[in-house]
Amino acid sequence: MSENTPANGKTPVDFWFDPLCPWAWMTSRWMLEVEKVRDVEVRWHVMSLAVLNEDKLDELPEEYRDMLENQAWGPVRVVIAARQLHGDDVVGPLYTALGTRFHNNGEGPTREAVAAALKDVGLPEDLAEYADKDTYDTELRASHQEGIDKVGQEVGTPVIAVPGADGEQVAFFGPVVTPAPKGEEAAKLWDGTLLVASIPGFYEIKRTRTQGPIFD
């Protein structure tokens, strides 16, 4: 699925996200900028912080554990339900609607925000009922696993995969950045990220975060 080139000839960029994560949201807004300045097309996929951490809940801080258990399942279940019932093309717009309400507007992952986001993109508001259902958990876990298999278990969201020079996918976690670069800055970060990620044996570059996500 992920390696197929779109009919328009653009380079496919597969992006795995959990709508709850503010840092994945920042990266996703950057990727939309990259689409404007590089010949790429983003294809959106869900992954789940709840699934990623379900075997290590006892090791996590209480506040983060509470978030995973009581907030993380709902939004991603709604997105996967929308995808299963209405097709791949609704995933990106729904993510934008959810993220705008959750993060930019400060509404958080409430049932009301989810229903409003569905309405924003013309999807049935009753899809919000899937937040409490495991109907499509098998599909959710499969989508999550497809992304995480490309980078390993020791990362989070987002995961990005893009064809390398030899046709094989190059995948990585991140980049973690704030605010989301625009224009030529977005292009520079994209080019540089691909450059380092394509080096065999390259694993990590990192520095301490000194500010939180800047939503603009």
TrEMBL record:
A Pfam family annotated for this UniProt entry: Rv2466c-like
Matches recorded under InterPro entries: Rv2466c-like (IPR053977), Thioredoxin-like_sf (IPR036249)
Listed CDD domains: DsbA_family (cd02972)
Residues in coiled coil: none
Name of protein: Protein disulfide oxidoreductase
